[in-house]
Specification:
By secondary structure, the chain is an alpha+beta fold. Helix content is 71%, strand content 9%. The chain has a 4-stranded antiparallel β-sheet. Helix 1 crosses helix 2. The chain is rod-shaped and about 190 Å long. The chain starts with a helix and ends with a helix. This is Kinetochore-associated Ndc80 complex subunit spc25. It comes from Spiromyces aspiralis.
Length: 245
């Protein structure tokens, strides 16, 4: 391509160059012939110089174009890499957005579940508050019954304490009462017979009984069924008397 362009450039130079005119005479004048040859030689030299100058300019332009092509190729490569980096960054951002969208959807589902659980808990709390109020009213009624029963049972309790040697004291644990009987054995009237009752729950439980009696479980079941504590103490002392004899 460079050789073809160079030939075209040379042809253009030759076409544009105006050759000198030479006049010929019929007489063979050696002087004129010498002058003609000299002019032709000058013409040839001028054409060579012109061609060489144009060739140098053309080669310089070709070199500039080649360098420009390299620069453009480097710019295109840099832009291509930049484009690839932008595409990669866009894809990464898109992936992060998808992950965040999935996380948001999961959080929305969890929030909905939490709202349902909160609604259920609020409903349970409302029910518990109603039950608590009902229990408070029940406790008030029971307190009145207990106070009334205490007034009725006070003489019998004093009889237990004075005649049967009953002593009631607090136990080693919270909500525990210890009932100690003396005057059970006729031989050893000061020997203590005791039972510790756990009152922390509605169902009575015996945590200690000294000495042990065989019908203790039956007596405790009867107590929980009847809620008649004073009769329970009577039955219990009768068992201790039988055991002591």
């Amino acid at each position: 391509i460079s050789s073809q362009a160079s030939q075209q450039q040379q042809q253009q130079v030759i076409d544009e160059y105006e050759p000198p005119t030479v006049k010929f005479y019929r007489t063979e004048d050696k002087k004129h012939i010498t002058e003609f040859v000299r002019r032709v030689d000058e013409l040839v030299e001028d054409i060579k110089k012109l061609i060489n100058g144009r060739r140098a300019e053309f080669e310089a332009k070709i070199q500039q174009n080649l360098e420009r092509e390299k620069e453009m190729a480097a710019e295109v490569e840099a832009l291509t890499k930049q484009h690839q980096q932008l595409v990669k960054a866009f894809e990464d951002e898109h992936s992060r957005e998808e992950v965040m969208q999935v996380s948001v959807e999961q959080l929305e589902v969890e929030q909905e579940q939490i709202n349902l659980e909160v609604a259920e808990l609020e409903e349970e709390l409302s029910q518990l508050e109603c039950e608590l109020e009902e229990r408070k009213r029940g406790l008030e009624r029971m307190r009145g019954v207990v106070e009334s029963q205490q007034k009725e049972d006070r003489p019998e309790l004093e009889f237990f304490e004075r005649v049967l040697g009953l002593e009631i004291r607090g136990g080693d644990r919270d909500n525990e009462l210890v009932f100690v009987f003396t005057k059970v054995s006729t031989i050893y009237p000061d020997k203590p017979y005791l039972i510790a009752v756990d009152l922390s729950k509605r169902t009575y439980k015996v945590s200690r009984c000294e000495p042990a009696i065989s019908k203790l479980d039956q007596l405790v079941d009867w107590l929980n069924e009847t809620r008649d504590f004073y009769s329970f103490l009577k039955k219990l002392r009768a068992e201790f008397v039988t055991l002591s004899s």
